[in-house]
Design a protein that fits this description.
The structure is a single chain. By secondary structure, the chain is α+β, with helices and mostly antiparallel strands. It has eight helices and five strands, in the order H-H-H-H-H-H-E-E-H-E-H-E-E. The protein has a five-stranded mixed sheet, with helices on both faces. The N and C termini lie far apart (61 Å).
Length: 225
């Protein structure tokens, strides 16, 4: 007989957000249940102890040493850690050139739909966050400046980099891409948050509006400094 996760952990997380639970409660949410020999609360506490004393390379090995934690549970915890690392490794990264951003948005290139992103940056051009503005075909009537800049304003960002993927495999900007960028540039001048670039990515290449001297004036810039 398995012991189910505490309902109040799930309910409180749904009410207050994923940042609300402590580490042990996050483990409980990941695993869902313990087993007949170890309640989920005790298992979660022991797992947190293991994580605190483990390095990245020996997490699974150390988890498997815990009685009642089999391969499925050990791999579930390790997978959650790896997913979190991949998703948030961009935080604080310093962006000097368009190419510096590519590793953090390349995962969107494999999607069959177009993802339009707004990457917010502080005054030192360190990434604050990567926001998904919309999913679907890029269209200036669908990409409203309010949706692009609202999070930048909340985060007190100094600049944003626009980015989207081309599922077709050709990162060359379309007429719609250019028109949308013009609209957002005009809005950025009014709002006072600089648009450093608009980058289009596919699985192998990228196109930078800035590097191609498109819509950013006559001066060719090598980077964002």
């Amino acid at each position: 007989m398995e012991i189910n996760n505490k309902p109040d952990v799930r309910e409180k997380t749904l009410e207050y957000g994923i940042g609300y639970p402590v580490d042990e409660e996050l483990i409980m949410l990941i695993l869902g249940s313990g087993n007949k020999n170890m309640p989920i609360e005790l298992m979660a506490r022991k797992i947190v102890d293991v994580l605190d004393s483990s390095n990245e390379d020996d997490v699974v090995e150390n988890l498997l040493k815990l009685k009642g934690v089999g391969e499925s549970k050990a791999l579930a915890i390790a997978a959650a850690l790896e997913l979190g690392k991949r998703r948030f490794i961009h935080l604080g990264a310093h962006i000097k050139t368009p190419r510096d951003l590519i590793p953090f948005v390349r995962n969107y290139a494999i999607n069959t739909k177009e993802y339009f992103l707004a990457v917010t940056l502080n005054g030192g051009h360190n990434i604050i966050k990567i926001h998904v503005v919309s999913v679907g075909t890029i269209n200036r009537t669908l990409i409203h400046p309010r949706e692009v800049f609202v999070e930048a304003i909340k985060e007190n960002a100094s600049a944003v980099i626009l980015c989207h993927n081309h599922p077709s495999g050709d990162p060359t900007p379309s007429g719609e891409d250019i028109a949308t960028t013009k609209t957002l540039l005009e809005a950025s001048r009014i709002i006072g948050i600089t648009v450093l670039d608009h980058i289009i990515v596919d699985c192998e290449n990228y196109f930078s509006f800035m590097e191609n001297n498109l819509l950013f004036g006559k001066q060719k810039l090598a980077g964002f400094a």
